[in-house]
Amino acid sequence: MPAIVSVRNLRKTYDTGFEALKSINLEIEQGEILALLGPNGAGKTTLISAICGITVPTSGTVSVGGFDTLLEYRQARSLIGLVPQEINLEPFETVRATVAFSRGLFGKPRDDARVMAILKSLSLDDKANARVKELSGGMKRRVLIAKALAHDPRVLFLDEPSAGVDVELRRDMWRVVADLKATGVTIILTTHYIEEAEAIADRVGVIAKGQILLVQDKAEMMAQMGKKQLRVALTRPATAIPAALAHYHLTLEDEGRTLVHTYDARQERTGIRTLLNDLDAAGLQMADLQTQQSSLEDIFVGLVKDDA
């Protein structure tokens, strides 16, 4: 299946000489959720703006649904819905009218039933006649999503969708995104919340300094790059690691009270049983032990740090 969004050799250099995007190549499949992670200034918003036609790239090409975003702008843009970071809504307009107006901007015929269906899918149907200024911050973000969906796009961009939203509303937003995916909408989101990507994304892309460092299936990434740690709490603090245990490459933490062993859980034999026997032989008595799997956050921090 061809990618619904194809980015090839995309560059963006501003008049100041700052290169915000450096030869970006990215293929996004129909119906997937791609989370784009990166620190502030990494180029996330610039990349989305270039794909959506808001920013004109210095070089390279972008196509959406097979349409070039510069040469066939109208066709490409009609397939895209964009939810920006900033909440920029007409405060005195009703929710229903706000969404209907966005639909009209794309040349879609009036369809009150469709507008109400979109509002209902976002739990906004009971707010249809409310003025925007009467809504909470979380509800306003839902209105932004409704506006972006008004013309029935095939690709939805969410730029920091849960910024400024409390934990409960953030998880509710994740449910909304999952429901949209179930209807076949392709979703690309940028986020600072690692847990957001870990919870809902199919693939994760990491961007730093205008370059894509990695794009990979989330589960595969964690399996291939994630590590496990065995943390052994000692009955008495150790001042140093005995020479007999040097080949295990252990580290001491908590002022010598905890031994840490990092290993690859995918190996047929992890060597943990032998390690525990060797600890006992070296005179180190175990009080407790626990294992810990690397999270997506650990992997992300490691990738960005390596690129620094």
Give your account of this protein's structure.
By secondary structure, this protein is an alpha/beta fold. It folds into 2 domains: 5-223, P-loop containing nucleotide triphosphate hydrolases (Rossmann fold); 226-307, Alpha-Beta Plaits (2-Layer Sandwich). Helix content is 33%, strand content 27%. It has helices spanning 44-52, 73-77, 95-105, 112-121, 137-149, 167-182, 194-200, 218-225, 272-281, 296-307, and strands spanning 5-13, 19-28, 33-37, 59-64, 67-68, 80-83, 155-159, 186-191, 203-208, 211-217, 228-234, 251-253, 258-263, 286-293. The strands form 3 sheets. A 6-stranded mixed beta sheet has the order 6-7-8-3-9-10, with helices on both faces. A 4-stranded antiparallel beta sheet has the order 2-1-4-5. The longest helix is centred in the middle third of the chain and has 16 residues, at 167-182. The chain is elongated and about 80 Å long. The model has no long low-confidence stretch (mean pLDDT 87). Residues 5-234 form the ABC transporter domain.
